[in-house]
């Protein structure tokens, strides 16, 4: 049951942060989440729902309900989340633990090493 909950938390993060991105970008968001959790399934949900870590969890109108079952993007996010948790999909971010969209310029970006750009996101790891 724990693994199912962890996969759903990871899928929600992939869906809300990257559903419009190419598959590689969705995998990247998933692996950033896993990198933050040190690839520990027990830490996935706490990482996803940590205050002010992911934009969608900070919205006043939390989209915490699951997307419609027949939403293709949601189905893809769940499938990718399972594959990431099972170790089938590897980290494509070179160890990144942070990312932001191209159109955002957060002050924290200078404190980290830029690792890769995938789709509309820029990924960073600790120096």
Automatic annotation (TrEMBL):
Organism domain of life: Bacteria
Keyword Hydrolase appears in the UniProt entry: yes
Any GO MF annotation of the entry: hydrolase activity
InterPro entries: Cell_wall_hydrolase_SleB (IPR011105), SleB_dom1 (IPR042047)
Record keywords: Hydrolase
Cell wall hydrolase SleB domain ranges (all copies): 20-124
The protein, known as: Cell wall hydrolase
Organism: Candidatus Pantoea soli
């Amino acid at each position: 049951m724990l693994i199912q909950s962890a996969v759903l938390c990871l899928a929600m993060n992939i869906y809300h942060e990257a559903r419009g991105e190419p598959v590689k970008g969705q995998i990247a968001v998933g692996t950033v989440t896993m990198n933050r959790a040190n690839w520990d399934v027990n830490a996935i949900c706490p990482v996803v729902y940590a205050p002010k870590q992911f934009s969608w969890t900070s919205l006043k109108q939390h989209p915490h309900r699951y997307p419609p079952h027949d939403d293709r993007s949601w189905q893809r996010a769940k499938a990718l989340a399972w594959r990431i948790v099972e170790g089938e999909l590897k980290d494509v971010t070179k160890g990144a633990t942070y990312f932001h969209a191209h159109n955002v310029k957060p002050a924290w970006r200078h404190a980290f090493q830029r690792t890769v750009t995938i789709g509309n996101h820029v990924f960073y790891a600790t120096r």
